[in-house]
Specification:
Pfam families: NB-ARC (PF00931), RPW8 (PF05659). It is built from 24 helices and 23 strands. The protein is of the alpha/beta class. The longest helix has 33 residues, at 90-122.
Length: 827
Amino acid sequence: MAVTDFFAGEIATELLKMLIQIVNKSIVCKSSARQLMSTLDNFGKVIQEIKNSGEELPERRQFELDRIHEEMKSAQELCFKIMKSSKWNAYKNLQYSRKLDRIDKRVMRFIQGSMQLHMYAGICKLSSNTSEKFDQIDGSIRRLEQQVTGMNIRADCWVEQAIQFQDQDQSMWEEAHGRGIVFGLEDGRRKVREMLMTSRDDPRVVGIHGMGGSGKTTLAREILRDEQVKAHFNNKIMFLTVCQSPNIHELKARMRGFLMGNDPSSMHDTWSSQYGRTNSTPMPALIVLDDVWNLKDLEQLMVFKGHSGCKILVVSRCRFPTIVQTTYDIECLRKHEAMTLFCLTAFQQHSIPPGVNENLVKQVVNECKGLPLALKVIGGSLRDQPEIFWCSARKRLQRGLPIDESHENNLLEKMKISFDHLDKKVKECFLDLGSFPEDRRIPLDILINMWMEVHDLHQEDAYVILYELANKNLLTLVKDPRAGELYSSCYDVFVTQHDVLRDLALYLINQGELNERERLVMPRRESELPREWERHSDRPFNARIVSIHTGEMSDMEWPKMDLSNAEVLILNFSAKDYFLPPFIEDMRKLSVLILINQATSIAVLRNFKVFNSLTNLRSLWLEKVNSPDLSETNVPFTKMQKISLILCKINNSLDPSVVDLPQIFPRITDLTIDHCDDLMELPPSICRMKSMKSMSVTNCHALRRLPPCMDLLTSLEILRIYACPSLRTLPPGICELRCLKYLDISQCVNLARLPDRIGNLISLERIDMRECSQVRCIPKSALGMQSLKNIICDEEVSPVWRDVKRARPEIQLQVVEKCFTLDWLDE
């Protein structure tokens, strides 16, 4: 094949055209396509010089170019696949992007190696202008190598993009609301408002009833925002989620505190601070009980029904005529409302775009039967898909039959269509969401870590899957309200899921024979393990993920079960005293263990000796328990990489005179300690954990000091010391953390100054110091932080960075408002 044929031929021209289209269309592959275009452009310039020289290349050199021709053909085939793929299929596009990168690298190696040598030997008699061309291509190669080196997709980037996408969605809904498009809520809001604003004593309990996915909770939240309702109840409104496995004692305590005005932890952000005192005179109040499932739970919560001036709004799929005096039955969306909601989700505009098969869209919308959740989820799954994909979805919707006569199960069948079009790995990750309790926020760190371990995913792959599920409305990313409007890091993000989508995951999980299922899940809290599990305990269970949800358990209440294949064990319980299941001792493959106590008080863990057999454990999450006595541990956890202690009592478990942490956990990379109110200082031995990359100590109000030898943490990249008000100084050793990229000292309100040698943090990219009002000046050495890109602070602190900003104008100084919401206390 001649050189002139190679670069003047159709393959190169078409490939470049396709790469241009990919740059304009694809989110994930854009960077890789640009790199390959740049490589081809520089390569083409040198080839053009050879053409102009009139020299014929020897057969050996022509053979080398033929190899590149094959690479171009591979790239062309790959570009066809990328162009056919939906830009919202982030996981598949990431795989394509990597293949494009590999082609680009092979071309660059050819340019650097054999091609340069052959070409130089063949055209050395050309003018000196040719030498300049070689200099140009060498410079291009170096630039491209730098771009490839920086190609790693950061986890924060994916989460930030997903949150931004959801924020854009929210702004679209708000814009639609402003235009009078409220998706069928206006009539409902008016009728429920009238029921609530009748005389204070008649009726006292009203309801919103409807099937799952019909918009009950959305309507209830609209009621909370209604100005007339807020004025009628003087802003004293409380929203509580009851769910299928409620903690009745905790709910009653919060209601009592709310009505009596003596329990600040019960305050919703809509409750004005004026009610933080004890009120001797009864005042009007509204309590919204969302997601109520059974009459027994509701009866126990009605003890405050007689409180003068109090109205209760019950939101449920069920009717409770003996308690709820008047009910609004939520209606499905009318045709034009359904079409608008669907178009906003599928096309990101209010109507069907020109050129789209209008009849096909209407048929798909009709099959959603006016259900808001179905419209959003199916619309999200069809976004940016080719028409053949839409035709397939329409046929499947049309022939979808209910599992039984229940409307709820018919909805599950419709939701399943969105699931069926996911890639295999994305499907598996979606199903994993069913392993967590209903109506609970799932910490992002738990989810990502579980996906990485069970599905052998790289961290960036896990975040891409999260991004894809969020964009398809199959989960929701929720920012911690304390973070304010600004997205700061993955630590501030949680995952939630609509009940119907969780029901779909559970329905799919529970297919097939019990012992052969990959996930063994208790859907709600029970007093004991399901009897079905006990009946099948004579044979081993094949489950890789096991999720158990109980109350207090003793040694004798655990059945003998063979769960030796399990890699993830999630123990959700509500108890003061909890005996760890004896069968843990035989779970040799267990790599992720999550213990979450949902009771109001800290639980004492018994039978901690079972940990001695968990030599494969990589990740441990303990929440609201007494931190176990590590002195009982007689084997090192050589594979343990992540430990999270949330709302735990530390006691003496970190005492260096009792335990040697680096010896027990020699390979820890990630340590999180949050809301541990008895933690006064970190043991110095932590600084000998030299593999540590991330350390987060947050909301520990008694923490007074950090170890002086922090400089020994030579691998540390992320350090979060957030909301530790007793901390007054940072140790000078922090300044020697040459790998540190992110420092968060926000809400350390008594921190007086930054260390003098802060400029030694040569890798620091971001510093967050919101509400550090005592910091009056920044050390001059801060000018030396050459990698610093982003400073986050509030208006009170921003002036101290003036000199740094003046010297380094490229630094982004983000000034945010203080956030005083107590909404986070709901969790």
